[in-house]
Amino acid sequence: MTAAIEMVDVLDEPQTIEGRSPFTLALRRLRKDKVAMISLVVIVLIVLMAIFAPVFTAITGHPPNEQYRDIGLTPDGLPRGPNGTFWLGTDDLGRDILVRIAYGARVSLLVGVIATAITVVIGVVLGLAAGFLGGITDTILARLIDVVLSVPFLLVAIALVSVTGPSLTVTVLVIGCFSWASVARIVRGQVLSLREKEFVEAARSLGAGDGRIMYVDILPNVIAPVIVYTTLLIPVVIVTQATLSFLGLGLPPPTADWGGMISSSQNYYTTAWWFILFPGLALLITTLAFNLFGDGVRDAFDPRADRS
Amino acid sequence: MAMFLLRRIGHGILVLWLISIAVFGLFFVAPSNVAQTLAGRQATPETIALIKHRLGLDLPVWKQYLHFLGNALKGNLGFDYYHQVPVTKIIAGALPITVSLALGAAVLWLSLGVFNGVISAIHPRSLADRGLTLFALFFYSFPSFLLGLLLLYFLYFRLTLSGFKWFPAGGYSPLAGGFGPWFQHLFLPWIALALLLAATYTRLTRGSMLDVLGEDYIRTARSKGIRESRVIVRHGLRSALTPVVTQFGIDLGQLIGGVVVTETVFSLPGLGQTAVVAINQQDLPVIIGIVLFASAAVVVANILVDIAYAVLDPRVRLH
Lengths: 308, 319
What we know:
Chain A: It comes from Kribbella kalugense. Chain A is mainly alpha-helical and 308 residues long.
């Protein structure tokens, strides 16, 4: 199957035979993965929803934090189900769930991307340093990695956020500062074997310094596992943020975020199914799309992946 | 082997000591108004000062730490601020609940994960493989609190509404009070936790089974005419389980302090929920005690895993 397609490629453009880097090969494999591509489309849609959240307000006429205590709540003060005015129903304060889901996507994606970026940068820098420099640097960093990996993350995160007070910055920092250790460990392991390779010796004999060897020669070789890990880390971070919100340590109200919405729906799950269902679905679809995409990325970048 | 063990245990103690410093520093440096809370709204500054003095909060942080460390080495983790109960007693009370939850779920996720992983590996890329992978990823993507709430909605609320009072809304019933109630109270939390964790094991078993089934000795076993089921279980699965056992040890250690959400959703007063309550009350000795205890569980689990590894694979001992 694969061979046949590549044959056609060759026949189409017989003159140009360009070298394919492992990266382009991986991208090509990824593009053929239907599940991964569908997930990517879903991710793009969620990103668009987050960017264009104000459009939802424009269409429905409902700002995210506006409480419609008259038309948005039943006479008993309960949330209203999906109807012509509120397409996905209202929450306990009479706010439009659809609009809040759109705005909530901003929080999830923002935290997911920024916290993951911090995690990966810290992890790669420290992992490179530990693996390449060795000696006392490695000993100290390796113990530090052990410490961070042994601490019960969620407990400490809850404790920290409760001490500092919840905010976007705190959430991002707490997640970033506690997740880098696994990235560092992966990178360190790879670098340990890479630094003995001939190309490092070659670079050194050409007069390259430690910094140059680490970032110019070695880094490109560890980028594949880092990319895979990054894609799979984003959904974990999104869930962590939602979990903190669920435990009451998310963003201060009235900011819309999915975990917080699900948390406040708890008291109504027997009477207002839409209140938990739609924010829950939004969160689940997002993490599922990222995980399925990440799975495809892993298969595409892992040369040992079974394509038998 | 003895040297390896000693070094490993030494590392573990070092890590725990560092964690104790970090946790202590973190929480004691942070602004706290425990004394104010304890004294009540109308307390005079003198009363607050007196309470601070009684709790030892007026000492410099390093003195408080040395005091704490000295006591901890004697097995005393201090007393909680509100009822003066020893922290060790609080942990001892909550631990059986967390352990019941973790071990029961472990049985489920191990059987589910390993079984699905083997099925996937026997027929890679088949419909069954893809279906099981999707199944695993689906539950892996579930935020644990959402899965817990859904289970409660369908298996508690809906079932009870239809007249089947099989599962309670939450809470815990000790094993001493009978196996039936204990089982009923833990069944939904077990499922919630197991579905979440099974995915990792499905993937791990599948990958490692695929590697092993490609080995020469498996071909040899097959060519000797051994039954396929025996080849898969006795020759394949047995050696494929090593990474699974490793992961299992690590996960079990982490669950001691990591089932915060499941315990909260199902109102199980285990270590996680106790810690959350303590955090809300700024009950520092309890927070520090539980965080340290949970870290110790991870450290011990990692050492046990390393030992198991060294026993299984002699090459590890040399490093």
